[in-house]
Amino acid sequence: MTQTLPKLDDLLEEYEFLDADDRYRLLIDLGKQLEEMPAPLKTDATMVRGCSASVWVYPVAREDGTLHFLADSNAAITKGIIALVLTTVQDRPASTIAQADIAEALAPFDLRNQLSSNRTQGIPNMIALIRETATRYAQDNG
Questions:
Q1: What is the CATH number of the domain that holds 77?
Q2: What is the pLDDT of residues 118-141, one digit of tens each?
Q3: Structural domain tally of the chain?
Q4: Domain-located, residue 2
Q5: CA 109, CA 136: separation in Å to the nearest integer?
Q6: Annotated catalytic residue 51
Q7: Catalytic residue selected from 30, 37, 51, 123
Q8: Which pTM does this prediction carry?
Q9: Is residue 1 one of the residues assigned to a domain?
């Protein structure tokens, strides 16, 4: 059963009112809302490179042309970050995701200043993997 992540605007509204500790908690709670990623999908092929923690992202193409991503991390805060990234793209058409400016959508969260650099270093790689995957699906189905 698919869980629905909150809308990015709703998250930002809540995030802006929180202090640093509560922002961490919000991200950790968001990570807990990701649906379970089956262990067999956590392979070298689905691992995001360049992250300080282990991060896996697996795309599921739907019949209607949308992409649904399963993701997980072995670190709670990193799992929250990937969940935040997914709120910008989850269950959208591959062509829309391929053209989305995910980094710009996340800019108001100012993650670079909120989190340590080793926590945020993998974000561009997460975004790149998602966009490359979406581009590939969009070309295959376009």
A1: 3.90.1010.10
A2: 667 788 889 999 999 999 998 887
A3: 1
A4: no
A5: 28
A6: yes
A7: 51
A8: 0.90
A9: no
